[in-house]
């Protein structure tokens, strides 16, 4: 049975490869006889986080134009960046963009990230010749992954698919397999490739000297251009103006908030001037949704690896966990309460457990810390859920601070 399945997979792979080759030959003839591709190509890289967008941008441009995340904890691309270069005397403009978390629906992604992702197509007016949807070959393209891609591509409007090529990165992962065999191995991947009318290309970003792979990619872009009625994906100027206003408003609000924090901090310093704080024991409770980075934050606070970020048994953490440490002579107690799922009613067991987490900090916590991943949305509903959870401790709500984490990716950026 397994043999029969793999045989039909191979047959489908070979059929797809032949179809692509035939179509390419036809369009190339058209380019050679009639059409002259643009001598300045504008490309935009979009895709999930860590899929290799920045590396692909560098590979295409043949130089280090964009920062690459060398470790899981390293910096990610947080705003669109533009790079320029030449390929065989042809001008190239490449836009790199922030990725979305591959399990996130559009609703899960923060407004700030969505705006920045959408902005990528507005970086090279009047619009890019090609959108390169970057997908790494090593990852399983599940139904959730497909939905996440579809959701985030909808930020650009339906027409974008006509100008999109799937750019598979991590070509080295293929080994002896062909990309077509990889495509045929998952129906969600087939769906994505079919949505792009069989336009795909593989890059191995570890082989920057292999310029042939970039040459063929540019050929495929020219072929898509030749086939399309519209030479490029034209951006909507009205939306560009709207986005500008949204960004300016957000900027103003952020500056105002920063000023308030700075003033509060000055007032507090003034109030306690001369008074030496002699705190010898500090107790905090970590709260947050599942995957919000609480465990990583706990480990960061205690300089330990005691909190288990990813549970090996994949079981839900249902009980509060306490660890102790010492920071510059101060005894620090950190209790992590179980996380809750986004967009669900707060279950009773969780309310009890949060109660228990507080009693584990006898005689009481100095602070509740709420973990909020920067890339994830935090909606009115999320806020209501959190307030509900803290209701029994309302008297102490003035003790709540929030901090931004990178969620399931680990690192914490405390604010
Ligand atoms: N083996 C292998 N690793 C690659 C390849 N392309 C990228 N990487 C690695 O994958 C990791 C992520 O690459 P990036 O280029 O930073 O990915 P990104 O999509 O820009 O990531 P974000 O900006 O965080 O969204 C880095 O450690 C790269 O070195 C590839 O073709 N092969
Ligand atoms: Mg990047």
From TrEMBL:
<keyword id="KW-0547">Nucleotide-binding</keyword>
<protein>
    <recommendedName>
        <fullName>AIG1-type G domain-containing protein</fullName>
    </recommendedName>
</protein>
<dbReference type="Pfam" id="PF04548">
    <property type="entry name" value="AIG1"/>
</dbReference>
<dbReference type="InterPro" id="IPR006703">
    <property type="entry name" value="G_AIG1"/>
</dbReference>
<feature type="compositionally biased region" description="Basic and acidic residues">
    <location>
        <begin position="8"/>
        <end position="22"/>
    </location>
</feature>
<dbReference type="InterPro" id="IPR027417">
    <property type="entry name" value="P-loop_NTPase"/>
</dbReference>
<dbReference type="GO" id="GO:0005525">
    <property type="term" value="F:GTP binding"/>
</dbReference>
<keyword id="KW-0342">GTP-binding</keyword>
<dbReference type="InterPro" id="IPR045058">
    <property type="entry name" value="GIMA/IAN/Toc"/>
</dbReference>
<feature type="region of interest" description="Disordered">
    <location>
        <begin position="1"/>
        <end position="26"/>
    </location>
</feature>
<comment type="similarity">
    <text>Belongs to the TRAFAC class TrmE-Era-EngA-EngB-Septin-like GTPase superfamily. AIG1/Toc34/Toc159-like paraseptin GTPase family. IAN subfamily.</text>
</comment>
<feature type="domain" description="AIG1-type G">
    <location>
        <begin position="38"/>
        <end position="242"/>
    </location>
</feature>
């Amino acid at each position: 049975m397994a043999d029969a399945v793999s045989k039909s997979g191979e047959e489908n792979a070979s059929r797809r490869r032949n179809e692509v080759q035939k179509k390419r030959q036809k369009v190339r003839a058209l380019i050679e006889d009639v059409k002259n591709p643009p001598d300045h190509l504008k490309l935009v890289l979009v895709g999930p986080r860590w899929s290799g967008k920045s590396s692909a941008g560098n590979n295409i441009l043949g130089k280090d134009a964009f920062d690459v995340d060398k470790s899981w904890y390293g910096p990610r691309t947080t705003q669109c960046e533009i790079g320029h270069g030449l390929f065989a005397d042809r001008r190239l403009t490449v836009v790199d963009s922030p990725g979305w978390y591959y399990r996130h629906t559009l609703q899960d992604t923060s407004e700030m990230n969505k705006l920045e992702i959408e902005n990528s197509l507005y970086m090279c007016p009047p619009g890019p010749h090609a959108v390169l949807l970057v997908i790494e070959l090593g990852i399983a393209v599940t139904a959730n992954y497909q939905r996440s891609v579809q959701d985030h591509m909808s930020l650009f409007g339906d027409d974008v698919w006509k100008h999109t090529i799937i750019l598979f990165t991590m070509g080295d992962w293929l080994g002896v397999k062909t990309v077509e065999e990889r495509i045929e191995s998952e129906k969600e991947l087939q769906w994505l490739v079919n949505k792009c009318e069989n336009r795909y290309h593989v890059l191995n970003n570890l082989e920057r000297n292999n310029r042939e792979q970039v040459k063929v990619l540019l050929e495929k872009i020219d072929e898509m251009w030749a086939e399309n009625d519209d030479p490029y994906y034209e951006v909507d100027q009205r939306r560009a103006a709207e986005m500008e206003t949204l960004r300016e408003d957000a900027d103003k609000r952020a500056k105002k908030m920063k000023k308030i924090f700075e003033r509060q901090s000055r007032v507090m310093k003034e109030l306690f001037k001369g008074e030496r704080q002699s705190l010898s024991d500090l107790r905090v409770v970590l709260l947050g949704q599942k995957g919000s980075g609480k465990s990583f934050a706990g480990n960061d606070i205690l300089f330990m690896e005691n909190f288990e970020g990813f549970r090996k048994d994949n079981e839900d953490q249902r009980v509060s966990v306490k660890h102790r440490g010492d920071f510059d002579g101060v005894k620090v107690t950190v209790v992590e309460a179980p996380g809750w799922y986004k967009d669900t009613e707060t279950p009773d067991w969780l309310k009890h457990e949060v109660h228990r987490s507080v009693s584990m900090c006898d005689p009481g916590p100095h602070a509740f810390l709420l973990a909020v991943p920067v890339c994830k949305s935090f909606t009115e509903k999320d806020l209501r859920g959190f307030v509900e959870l803290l209701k029994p401790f309302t008297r102490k709500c003035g003790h709540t601070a929030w901090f931004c984490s990178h969620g399931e990716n680990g690192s914490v950026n405390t604010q």
